[in-house]
Amino acid sequence: MERYAAAVSWLSRLSGYVAAGLILLAVLVVCQMLFVRYALGQSAIWQNEFVTFSLVAATFLGAPYVLLLRGHVNVELVPLWLGPRAKRVLGLAASLIGLVFCVLVFITSIEWWWEAWAGGWETSSVWRARLWIPYLSLPVGSLLLSLQYVAEVWAIATGRVPPFGALPGGAEA
């Protein structure tokens, strides 16, 4: 399981770098779009769709990295009142619910992606982007997030990582 957690950690970091790259690329395309539109007076056909697809893909592909770093938002009111054992049980329950949700999103998004790929769906703009390409970020991101949740559940269950950012002595991180 240690190897699994290390491999998933590597994949989550890689997806985080890809997400950061997509955000940087979206910023560059916005700058290019502004230059083309206002300095050259030309139309920007593909830029709006590209930026939208890039930012959505960055969101889904960056989620496993955020979970790995525990950068997500926690509502810690209840865990603050709990002892270490109850906090661990609650952390496991929350992670398992997150895992089930991500698996359901993965299953549903595979069907949606497949419809776009098999149906040859394209955007209605002049650019006519094939939609299966941006839609792929949803099943890939939810699969990686599910794998990261499995590692998270294992880490909490074995005591390798305290739930909710708590330190082993009960202090908060």
UniProtKB/TrEMBL annotation:
Where is the protein situated, by its record's location annotation?
A: Cell inner membrane
Keywords (alphabetical) are: Cell inner membrane, Cell membrane, Membrane, Transmembrane, Transmembrane helix, Transport
- GO molecular function terms attached to this record: transmembrane transporter activity
Superkingdom field: Bacteria
Known Pfam families for this protein? DctQ
The membrane-spanning stretches of this chain are: 17-38, 50-69, 89-114, 135-157
**Which residues fall in a coiled-coil region?**
none
GO biological process terms on file: C4-dicarboxylate transport
Q: Where is the Tripartite ATP-independent periplasmic transporters DctQ component domain?
A: 27-156
Q: What are the annotated GO cellular component locations?
A: plasma membrane
Task: Name the InterPro entries for this protein.
Answer: DctQ (IPR055348), TRAP_DctQ (IPR007387)
Describe its membrane topology. Answer: Multi-pass membrane protein
Chief location of this protein?
Answer: membrane
How is the subunit organization of this protein annotated in UniProt?
A: The complex comprises the extracytoplasmic solute receptor protein and the two transmembrane proteins.
Q: Which family does it belong to?
A: Belongs to the TRAP transporter small permease family.
Q: What does this protein do?
A: Part of the tripartite ATP-independent periplasmic (TRAP) transport system.
Q: What is this protein called?
A: TRAP transporter small permease protein
Provide the species name. Marinimicrococcus flavescens
